[in-house]
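Homework help board

Subject: predicted structure for assignment chain

Our instructor gave us this sequence and asked us to write out the predicted structure in token form, then describe one feature. I got the tokens but I'm not sure how to describe them. Can anyone check?
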Amino acid sequence: MESTIVMINLFGAVALLLFGLAQVKDGVTRAFGARLRTGLATGTRSGGRSFLSGFVATVALQSSTATALMVASFVERDLIAPAMAQIVLLGANVGTAVTAWIVATGIEWLSPLIILVGIVLYRRSSTSQQGAGTALIGIGLMLLSLQLLSLATAPIRQSQALAAFITLLDGAWPVALILSAAMAFISSSSLAVVVLILSLASTGVLSPALAVVLVLGANLGGAIPPVVATLSGLASARRVTLGNLIVRAVGCAIAMPLAGYAGAFLQGLGFSPAKLPVDAHLFFNIALAAVAWPFSPVLSRLMLRMVPADPRTDESPKFLDEHALGTPVVAVASATREVLAVGDLIERMLIRTETAFNTNDLAPLKEIPLLEKRVDYLQQEVKVYLSRLGRNGLDEDTSRRSIVIIDYAINLEHIGDIIEKGLSEQVAKKIGKGLAFSDDGFAELKRLFTMTIDNLRVAQTILVTRDFNLACQMMEVKVDVRRLEKQSSDRHIARLRDGRADSLQTSSLHLDMLRDLKRINAHIVSVAHPILDESGLLNESRLRTAAE
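My token output:
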């Protein structure tokens, strides 16, 4: 019974530490997220600035994993060179080690004051102040968890079972390293595992060598989550995270046989045995950064060989015939065919998002970013193609038609952005958090999804046929969508007033999805505007009444 209580207290303290880390990350992201992302994207022109950017971002976010994923996304968009990205991650590794060292300096007694200040800031109206307050609350909870960890591990000194287990690990360093790496991978935080090792070391049950080995395992395991997170991404992103994992793995392979000497060396420098894990953590990452930094270009070239390029697809436009530019009518027809292909890509994005929404399966969402990139590329090619056509002088009808096609392509690109940055993220959040809409709310959103896909198909037809009656029907659809969105919103609010638990949990998601589907339909309906405008029936974006 006593051992059970000890384990509950230990796991509870670790859970509080992880929650505090998450609060710091969320708060800093809310308060300074845009600045951090901008700083990472622009502060990588040299090795020194790259290292500093990774260091600062990780100290602020308390997560080298978050920094790694941001850097990988920037490499995907060619905002950071691969060699500089590797240096950024070296800085991130040192940043998380410095954080652990600061946490272990004995400032736990400040936790109540930090939490109090955080709550005061959180109650302010400013978003940045609320974010800063959340981050301070997280820091206070992290420090509080250290006190709880110290109390939870105190009875361990008398545990014969733990002593036997530690003795076993002390004679099997590879097993100890793998165990520590697994814990860091599962918790997605090397910092949390290092702090746990610190708490065990303070009880005196760990030998210096074993403490060093466990710290090495935490470093290795902390590099795995970014690799897993980028498995479905582009090859450029996978190369960055895999390169970071290889650097840590090589560093651990070299350092583990020297763990006994390293432990004795650190003790010989006068460091406290109780603080040896954080000292070893910091020393390892500084030494690894110093050694690996000069080899970052070599590592980038190695990753090019290890991670093959993404399978080549025919990304070039299929219908934009350069030879047709001399015949405007044919060129406009070619552009029309190409923009219809863009519309087909948007339909695929909508269908995959709807499928994920209906089946609670994240798999259909994996293709969304790639589809959106192709939409961006093709709509840009259509605009460039038609702008080149316009240089030769066009008659009024052809000029008007080319403008309609460009407007439609731009609207499709906006729809792609809404799907990728809005709908798909909202559906992923629903699935990831295991949320369930009320039956009525689910049916309302499903109906709007279906209506949106049908409207897109009608819009594709209108673009080609320029059918007046279909254009009029499309304008009526805008009214129907607005009415459906308002009815669903009102019913949702009514369910909230009734205290429906499922509606309370999904309130934000429900309203956000309604808003985004309404925005998508507004872009779809715009295809009818030129036809009705030419007929004199469009006034201030609305149909004139029969009396007029």
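Reply (TA_rk): Your tokens look well-formed. For the description, you could write something like this. Residues 540-548 have pLDDT under 50 and may be disordered. That's the kind of observation they're looking for.
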